[in-house]
Write a structure and sequence with these properties.
seven-stranded mixed β-sheet, 10 helices, two-stranded antiparallel sheet, single chain, alpha/beta, 9 strands
Length: 261
């Protein structure tokens, strides 16, 4: 696991304090904004800072669309009673609840201790687990389904994470990835990009405990590969029958793949 103590984070953040796109900021010894290099300690600390109001902020910034996206993820995962589901980048476990309601055994996993602590207060019965997506603390062939929503682009080594997901999935199991992507209609894509970089930060300032974190999130969305690019990376990691479908005009894409029996 790569979660580092906040005291150690402060030393690194202080060196980067400051100044322009892609740099980490520091506020009272805490990382306020990770860089696009996605150093694990920066990203984890940044999410620690936004944990308390994270779900509310997401709801506001997505104009309520995040609820619809979660429903589509639940349909794609298609969890069944007794099945084991790994929910990566689960945060406070809002994304895990639909799987638990089906009777599946769901493990919410995240590398932000702040997120896990907030989630544990709300959902004491869930087996919250601290873990790094590139080095998962689980045995081979454990889960019937592995899913990650809006977290893969925050992992420093995307390909390593996709391989780890493959490793811990049982033969015949599936992966479902929900992530921001590239709108398919060019005029809308232009409007969306303007929203990300101009409207999102001011809105975040009104509802988030750490609005600088959402500047990083906007930048990371713009830098993320398109639908076909992510599908290719899934295939290279070993997943078969890889496919995707667009949600909200491609603002979000839902990718799915299978581990051959």
């Amino acid at each position: 696991m790569s979660v580092l103590a906040c005291g150690r984070v402060a030393d690194v953040a202080a060196e980067d304090a400051a100044t322009g796109p892609g740099r980490a900021g520091c506020n009272n010894g805490r990382v306020t904004r990770a860089s696009l290099n996605k150093q694990p300690h920066e990203v984890a600390s940044m999410f620690d800072d936004v944990a308390e109001r994270y779900d509310l902020t997401n709801d506001v910034l997505s104009l309520g669309q995040d609820r619809r996206w979660r429903k589509e993820v639940a349909k794609a995962v298609d969890a069944r009673p007794v099945q084991k589901v790994l929910d990566l980048a689960a945060g406070t476990a809002t994304s895990s609840l639909p799987f638990a309601r089906t009777g599946a055994y769901v493990v919410p996993c995240d590398f932000s201790l702040g997120m896990l602590q907030v989630g544990k207060k709300k959902h004491t019965w869930l087996p919250f687990t601290a873990g790094d997506a590139t080095r998962l603390p689980f045995r081979d062939d454990t889960f019937d389904a592995v899913t990650i929503s809006f977290g893969l682009r925050n992992v420093q080594d995307t390909d390593a994470a996709l391989r780890e997901m493959y490793r811990v999935t049982r033969p015949g199991g599936r992966v479902v990835i929900c992530e921001f992507s590239h709108p398919t209609w060019a005029p809308f894509r232009t409007v969306y990009t303007e929203y990300l970089m101009r409207a999102l930060p001011p809105v975040a300032r009104s509802v988030s405990s750490n609005p600088d974190a959402y500047v990083y999130l906007a930048e990371s969305i713009r830098a993320w590969p398109d639908q076909a690019g992510l599908a290719e990376r899934l295939q290279k990691a070993g997943w078969s029958k890889v496919a995707w479908r667009n949600l909200t005009g491609g603002v979000v894409a839902l990718h799915r793949g299978f581990k051959e029996s």
